[in-house]
Amino acid sequence: MEGKIIPISLQDTDLVLEIWRLQHLAYRLEAQWIGFNEIPPLLDTVETIQGCGESFFGYITDDMELLGAVAVETEEEGTRTISRMMVHPLHFRKGIAGQLIEYVLDLYRDVPKIIVSTGLKNVPASNLYQKYGFKPVETQEVAPGVELTTFHLNRINDRS
């Protein structure tokens, strides 16, 4: 199924509702993998997504079905954080997440550092980020028995 990546306006309530649905499908699976049901995206509402201040990009099919999305935020100058990455579970392993990462890396090619985090037990996501040059820099316990690994992609030098 062919698709394209487009910016998503958080003012478009219909598309935000699609993000919310996709987020719940994708992050519910991650919650099962890592053994933690309180992943922040699972606590979102349409309103909290609309007010989050992140930039969203969606992988949309020709018939306007949202199969994947990525969100990016700016926390400090010279850094962008991939704050959300989601793909519809029926479309895992079809290259959608890779295309979304490539889109973000190209869009923010002048940004020296890109950061992303995922649950330590989310091996598919960890492998995907490392495939694109992200290096693990820190693992921390965010809840009892739940560890989050942070990855950095440094474009100026190889220091984290």
Features:
alpha+beta, 32% helix
The helix content, as a percent range, equals 25-40%
Number of strands: 7
Helix/strand/pairing category: alpha+beta
Report the total helices. Answer: 5
Q: Tell me the series of helices and strands, N- to C-terminal.
A: EHHHEEEHEHEE
Beta-strand proportion: 25-35%
The separation of the N and C termini measures 38 Å
* Physical arrangement of strands within the biggest beta sheet: 1-2-3-4-5-7-6
The main β sheet shows up as:
7 strands, mixed
Rg, Cα atoms, Å: 15 Å
Low-confidence stretches: none
Specify the overall morphology. Answer: globular
Mean pLDDT over all positions: 92
Protein architecture, described:
This protein is of the alpha+beta class. The chain contains five helices and seven strands, in the order E-H-H-H-E-E-E-H-E-H-E-E. The protein has a seven-stranded mixed beta sheet with strand order 1-2-3-4-5-7-6, with helices on both faces. The radius of gyration is 15 Å and the shape is globular. The mean pLDDT is 92.
Summarize the structure.
32% of the residues lie in helices and 34% in strands. The protein is α+β, with helices and mostly antiparallel strands and 160 residues long. Strand 6 (135-143) and strand 7 form a beta hairpin.
